[in-house]
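User: Could you check the structure of this?
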Amino acid sequence: AINQHSLHISILCLIMMKHCAYLTVAAALFFDSALSFAVDGDRRNPTIIARTTTNSQLGSTTENGSKAESSTDDLLKPSYEIEKIPLRIGHGFDIHRMAPLEEAGQPVVIGGVVIDHKPQKWTDADGKYVDKGEIYETELGVVAHSDGDVIYHSIVDAIFGALTLPDIGQVFQDTDPRWKGCDSSKFMEHAYGVMKGYGYKVGNIDVTLILERPKVASFKPAMKENIVKLLDTTPGRVNIKARTHERVDSVGELRSLSCHVVATLELEN
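Assistant: Sure, the predicted structure tokens are below.
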């Protein structure tokens, strides 16, 4: 009786082991399928739609260009799910040095507008043109790898931030020769495409531009118009404020300019 009982137990164990093996295979197949969906599925990695592909800097067909573009796209398609919440908020910040135009090699461009101006009282902190710390009157330019547009850069950063994506410095690196002297409207167009690809539109954009000089009040309407067009939105959703820095630190001494942007993104129907 004992031997028969032991035999029954052995047979039962064999049956259970067989079923465990089936469950192991089934689980492996399930998780493999789930992993494939996480990597390739539309829900987690929607197709990124770019508004323009005509710019050679964003659409290089060389082998190195293709690898770099692929790397950029990978940064903008994280492995985790970017959830479809109704409202997202992002903050962007940028700062660039200003220097005499002949040194900077390019003009001051803000919000896609070239800021024409008379010579300004720039503080020569390094004593390159006059005694160290003295005032040097000069037309100014922005020192940057691209065109140094602080408003456009801050908006792009705010959009990426709202979508939990890497910052603009990671996506468009200042060591990449493709972006040397690049018109920053191309970054805006790309950010717009990323935003649309994830199913969002602009809720509102609030810009705070900080610079001592030159004065920009007369240029603000053109800046706003550019932003509205690039982000396919309306004037009632874009605001631009500008203020000085009360002659404090590098911004107050005309050696730099900076910008803050707060952006909200709304889920599209």
